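Entry for the shared binder. Reason: the reviewer on the internal report wants the predicted structure included alongside the sequence.
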Amino acid sequence: MRLTGIPHLDAYYHPDVAIQGFNRTRDAYSLAIVLFDIALWAPVACTIPEDTGKSLEDMSSSEFRAHLLDSMPTLGAQVGIAYPDAVESCLSGDFGVGPDSEDNAAIGRAFFTKVLKGLGSCRV
C-alpha cells in the first residue's frame, strides 16, 4: 500500500506508515532514504538497475526497502563503512532495542549510539 500514490514520494516513507502511522523508527527510515540520496548525489530511485526490468513504480514499498538493504555493499564501496552502517540501522529499524519498543528514551539513546555517532565519525 502506498501512502500518497506518488512512487517517488512514497519511497521516502516506511512501508508500514500507511497502516500503522508514524513513530521514531519509521521516521528513521525516512532519514535513511535522505542519507542514501546524499551519498549518491542523486535520488535513491536511481539505485534500481535497469536490468531488473522494474522501476520504482513497479515495486511495492517492501520490495524497494529490500532492494535498498541489498544495496548496502555498493553504498559502502562509495562512502566507507560507518555511513552505510548508519543507513542500514535506519532502514532496518535495528537500534539495539526491541523492534516494537515504545520506550522513546531508549530508542533515542540507541539511535544516538548507532546512527549519530557513526555519522559523526565520517570524514570527507
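Summary line for the report: The helical segments are 7-10, 17-20, 24-40, 61-70, 72-79, 82-92, 104-120.
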